[in-house]
Design brief:
single chain, alpha/beta, Purple Acid Phosphatase, chain A, domain 2, 6-stranded mixed beta sheet, 258 residues, 5 helices
């Protein structure tokens, strides 16, 4: 039995939030699958999604973020029927969400089984004391002038990260934080965001999910946070890096990989 009752969800599209009631709260582990950087190759990973409570995509769902690409991703994501909740954010390739947000909103309204987060808090349980809190944000330090880029160490980027609330369960950003699963193969120079690292050290989410740096794929645990780089494509854009699926005990913050 899941703590999430899918029959109680309703999507407030204007605010991109989902609320649900929690009745007869069951503290059993929540089963979560994490993916990122599918770059239009989402069909290749369908068989690697075992099902569970929550599926999270950490951005770069497309190649250039055209309406066609976004619509094809949403059609696929919406069709996945073995997760109660499917969340995603945009990444630096997903231009449409930055340059044509109204058109993307129209596309989102066609699919009621997905939740898009852009600097938004999603709460499962509303004001219930056991509400599960998830924040999603697409921004990264400037990277060849792609989408959702802001100057590294700049005040604009600092202001974006300052919006991340405390008391968070899961933080989803497209790019990694500084020093956490953020290096290119064969090089040791961190590419993650220094300012995001500073904010994570303050808010201390239980789980941080990212992608962006494909060769940073992996998992680590540090200072009370589970870090995941869930990029499923390698540096040659081949599907060789499997999604992460695990059971997560919210009370103890322990995970067990599936």
């Amino acid at each position: 039995m899941s703590i999430i009752n899918p029959d109680l969800w309703h999507l407030l599209k204007g605010e991109q939030k989902i609320y649900t009631e929690i009745k007869n709260y069951n503290p059993r582990p929540v089963r979560i699958t994490l993916i990122s950087d599918t770059h239009n190759m989402h069909d290749d990973i369908t068989s690697s999604l075992p099902g569970g409570d929550i599926l999270i995509h950490a951005g770069d769902l497309s190649g250039r973020g055209t309406n066609y690409e976004i619509d094809q991703f949403l059609k696929w994501y919406n069709s996945i029927d073995n997760y109660y909740l499917k969340i995603f954010i945009a990444g630096n390739h997903d231009w449409g969400f930055q340059t044509h947000p109204e058109e993307c909103q129209y596309l989102l309204e066609k699919y009621d089984g997905v939740c898009y987060l852009q600097d938004r808090l999603l709460k499962l349980g509303d004001d219930h004391p056991d509400a599960l809190k998830i924040w999603g944000s697409p921004w990264q330090p400037e990277f060849y002038s792609w989408a959702f880029n802001l100057p590294r160490q700049g005040e604009d980027l600092r202001e974006k990260w300052a919006e991340i609330p405390e008391g968070l369960d899961i933080l989803v950003t497209h790019g990694p934080s500084w020093g956490n699963l953020d290096t290119i193969k064969g090089k040791s120079v961190p590419l993650g965001c220094e300012l995001l690292r500073e904010r994570i050290d303050i808010v201390k989410p239980k789980i941080h999910v990212c992608g962006h740096i494909h060769t940073g794929y992996g998992y680590k645990y540090a200072n009370g946070t589970h870090y995941f780089n869930a990029a499923v494509l390698d540096e040659r854009y081949k599907y060789k890096q499997k999604p992460f699926t695990f059971d997560w005990n919210r009370e103890t913050n322990e995970i067990e990989f599936i």
